[in-house]
Design brief:
Low-confidence stretches: none
Helix content: 25-40%
Distance between the termini: 45 Å
Bound molecules: zinc ion
Largest sheet: 5 strands, mixed
Number of helices: 8
Radius of gyration: 22 Å
Number of domains: 3
Strand order of the largest sheet: 2-1-5-3-4
Oligomer: single chain
Length: 248
Amino acid sequence: MSVTLVFHRDLSYLLKNHNESNKQSTVRTLDRIASVKDLIESQGVPHTEVGSIISNGTDKSFDYIPVDGEVIHVYPLTPPVDVEKSTLLRENPVKEISFIVDVNVGRLAKLLRLLGFDTLYNPDWSDKELAGIAVRHNKILLTKDRELLMRKTVTWGKLIRSISPWEQLFEVILFYGLKDQIKLFSRCTSCNSLLVPVTKEKIVDQLEPLTRIMYNEFTQCPKCGKVFWRGSHHQHILKKLQNIMTTK
Ligand SMILES: [Zn+2]
């Protein structure tokens, strides 16, 4: 008994014991039969990375059990991925774009909040808690941990490939096509709450002398009280963001 899986495009690079580069596809023949999801994940590819499963020209679901000798083609998701749309592999769409971030890509949380995206983060959460919160609150789970994404309950997640936090941010924005949804400086980077405008008089006691002189417009987090203003670091962030906006 055997089943052949053909992993297409960048799924090849996620395979266990993958040692060839520049391959458009990689063929793996397995001598056991199980659900196609189990077979795919046994090769190191989390189900969250799969966009479609095709056999004999027909789309298959994750619980499809192949027959002896069958050849199954496995394709990655194609950006921009619309998470608000129901598909054969993911019947329950995400209601609106929001994230939960694992500690192994922790700095990404702050950057996503900086761009206004609703992002839960707590470095103390266990894998079980991350998966549970993602499911209960309909969040997209971002991580570098394949085992976490292979958990049964996780529907929406992404294995982050990039190394630096800014590159990870670009990766997420481009993957989900979020350029038009960016609301810069609208959310507290510390606690995720939406910021509200505040008059200078109300918060002047909290400001350093130079900030007090140089700036007149401020926002404040209604939850943690942190005050924000458009200082020199804003220019730095805007420059970084220009890279996202100009990347096709
Ligand atoms: Zn806050």
